[in-house]
Amino acid sequence: MQDIKSCTILNNGVKMPWIGFGTYKADGPSVINSVKEALKVGYGHIDTAAFYKNEDGVGTGIKESKVPREKIFLTSKVWISDEGYEKTLKAFEASIKKLKTDYLDLYLIHWPNPLHNETWRALEKLYKEGYVRAIGVSNFTSGHLKDLMSNAEIMPMVNQVEFHPLLVQNELREFCKKNSIQLEAWSPLMRGKVFEISLLKELAKKYKKTVSQIVLRWDLQMGIVTIPKSTTPSRIKENTDIFDFKISKDDMAKIQQLDKGIRTGSEPDEVYANSDTLKK
């Protein structure tokens, strides 16, 4: 973890940058400009999803940045309403068309769903045919992963989940580590709520860093890929300045002890149970 270009190596040998740029709830000129800014300051990893309805803007931002496509690790996700074998293949075609590319570096199933095994077969096909360099899931519990893996030919390479100091997910982290699945954190800053936590404020003063830099550095030292989102140029840059310091073992443990199992997003089992409603 030397700098912004540093990568983890997935279980298929593909390199994935430790820090990426999230784009959830960014659209129009905002997402175009923020993607361009992120690439300008050195990010090489951009995350989007069909559900975000901003793939077209992300694709435009990448194109206008003039950064060669092969220098960018690009992720998108298939939404619940597009799950199933044939529908997933069509959704993928729609995504890469909007993103103005002919391949993805990582394609994920966005949420666990009764059709996720069928959907996984489509991802395996795309992977075998070279349209995606890596495949994985998002918001899967260890139970969902066990179900998927028992029916899979190719094991998932990534699980992107909600992860932050109040939701450390110890059991899931251990399961993913044991099965060589890279864990990735969405909403690492708890949609801004980390800034209210006293311990993190104290550590920010101690290390002469911001609260967001403390949390993102903690993610990396926990072995978690992290994808903070911002549309503010100064914060886009600030979130990358996390490679010139190291949090001590004791302080890492203190942050980990903040865990209360609190989510800012949906609970995966509830999404699975209500997937028919979410398809509409």
Q: How would you characterize this protein structure?
A:
The chain is of the alpha/beta class and 280 residues long. It has one domain (7-278): NADP-dependent oxidoreductase domain (TIM Barrel). It is built from twelve helices and ten strands. It has helices at 28-41, 55-65, 85-98, 116-128, 142-151, 170-178, 198-207, 211-221, 233-238, 249-256, 268-273, 275-278; strands at residues 7-9, 15-17, 21-22, 45-47, 73-78, 106-109, 135-138, 158-162, 182-186, 225-226. Strands 3-4-5-6-7-8-9-10 form an eight-stranded parallel beta sheet. Strands 1-2 form a two-stranded antiparallel sheet. Strand 7 (135-138), helix 5 (142-151) and strand 8 (158-162) form a beta-alpha-beta unit. The radius of gyration is 18 Å and the shape is globular. It starts with 6 loop residues before the first strand and ends with a helix. The model has no long low-confidence stretch (mean pLDDT 96).
Shape: globular
End-to-end separation: 42 Å
Radius of gyration: 18 Å
What's the number of domains?
1
Tell me the total number of β-strands: 10
Q: Report the portion of residues in β strands.
A: 5-15%
CATH topology, which one? TIM Barrel
Specify the CATH homologous superfamily: NADP-dependent oxidoreductase domain
Largest sheet, spatial ordering of strands: 3-4-5-6-7-8-9-10
Amount of helix = 40-55%
Q: What class, by secondary structure content?
A: alpha/beta
> Uncertain spans, ≥5 residues at pLDDT below 50?
none
Rounded average pLDDT: 96
CATH architecture: Alpha-Beta Barrel
Q: Would you list the SSEs in sequence order as H and E?
A: EEEHEHEHEHEHEHEHHEHHHH
Sketch the major β-sheet.
8 strands, parallel
Q: In CATH's first tier, which class applies?
A: Alpha Beta
Count of helical stretches = 12
